[in-house]
Amino acid sequence: MGTTSWRELGRCKGADPVVFYPEDDEDFGEEAKAICAPCPVRETCLEHALVVREKIGVWGGYTAKERRRIIRQRRRAS
Q1: For residue 49, what pLDDT is reported?
Q2: What is the pLDDT of residue 25?
Q3: 20 to 30 A from 43, CA-CA: which of 12, 18, 34, 73?
Q4: What's residue 1's pLDDT?
């Protein structure tokens, strides 16, 4: 990718951040997930969120709750 950050290539660039940070846990981030679905850097974004333990927001098409589940599954598998 050279000097271009994966963040610069995300479909979310320029989108309203409110979409990615829902007010409550009842909002499953469907609008954000729709933006993430075809994103070329979705996997990189998700891995970033998992590594740095992002606690809020939709990253790589996954909510914080869904990311916690992924982390637990990975721990069990290792």
Answers
A1: 97
A2: 60
A3: 18
A4: 45
CB-based contact 73:59 (threshold 8 Å): no
**Cα–Cα distance for residue pair 71/78, rounded to 1 Å:** 11
* Per-residue model confidence as pLDDT tens digits over 5-41: 999 999 999 999 999 997 766 667 899 999 999 999 9
| Sign of CA pseudo-dihedral 51, 57, 61, 65 | positive
Helix segments in the chain, DSSP class H: 6-9, 30-36, 42-52, 64-77
Q: Running DSSP on this structure, what letter comes out for residue 59?
A: B
SS3 46: helix
C-beta of residue 70 within 8 angstroms of C-beta of residue 47? no
Dihedral, 69, 71, 73, 78 alpha carbons, nearest 10: -170
